[in-house]
Amino acid sequence: MSSYLPHFNPDIEEQEIAAVSALRAALNTADAVLIACPEYAHGLPGAFKNALDWVVGSGELSGKPVLALNTSARSIHAPAQLTEVLRTMDARVLEDMLIEAPRQAGDVLDAPGVFQKLQDMWRGLLQTTDTPA
Fold first, then answer.
1. Which pLDDT value is given to residue 18?
2. What would the pLDDT profile of 37-57 be if each residue is shown by its tens digit?
3. Alpha-carbon distances, residue 10 vs 19, 41, 46, 50, 85 (angstroms)
4. Which domains does the chain have, with CATH numbers?
5. What is the mean pLDDT of the chain?
6. Which of 58, 133, 50 is nearest to 85 (CA)?
């Protein structure tokens, strides 16, 4: 049995697929969701978009607070695309954020202001989960 999500197909959306069920269960039980997504070829990576497609109709992100984070220095298009997809799915997008980060992933937290921005975002996410909607 594969733990990979198959390519989304609305014809099999209602079938019991272990990887899809696990994704849906994890999202369903989460109080909030933090998404850190890179950009690939000026857009969302296909595998990540595929994961989102599996939960469009089942609604696990509907009304759920979601924080979309992007720390790629070269990311231009993906943050807006991700925000649009999440809003279409009725997620409560708290903040989409592009952090001007260095080219090396390991240096992200050392970039000026990044750590403080991440702390502020985390506090905001926690506040939304502590307060009943």
1. 95
2. 888 899 999 999 999 999 999
3. 16, 26, 17, 12, 17
4. 10-130 (3.40.50.360)
5. 83
6. 50
In the block, tokens 């649009």 appear at: 84
pLDDT of residue 49: 96
Question: How far is the C-alpha of 29 from the C-alpha of 11, rounded, in Å?
Answer: 26
- Residue closest to 86 by CA, chosen among 29, 20, 35: 35
Q: How is 40-54 classified by DSSP, letter by letter?
A: BTTB--HHHHHHHHT
Most confident region among 7-21, 62-76, 107-121 by mean pLDDT: 7-21
Identity of the amino acid at 89: M
Q: What does the alpha-carbon distance between residue 83 and residue 94 come to, in Å, rounded to a whole number?
A: 10
The token duo for 133 is 């909607």
In one-letter notation, the amino acid at residue 38 is P
* Residues 58 and 25 sit within 8 Å (Cβ to Cβ): no
Contact 73, 100 (CB under 8 A): yes
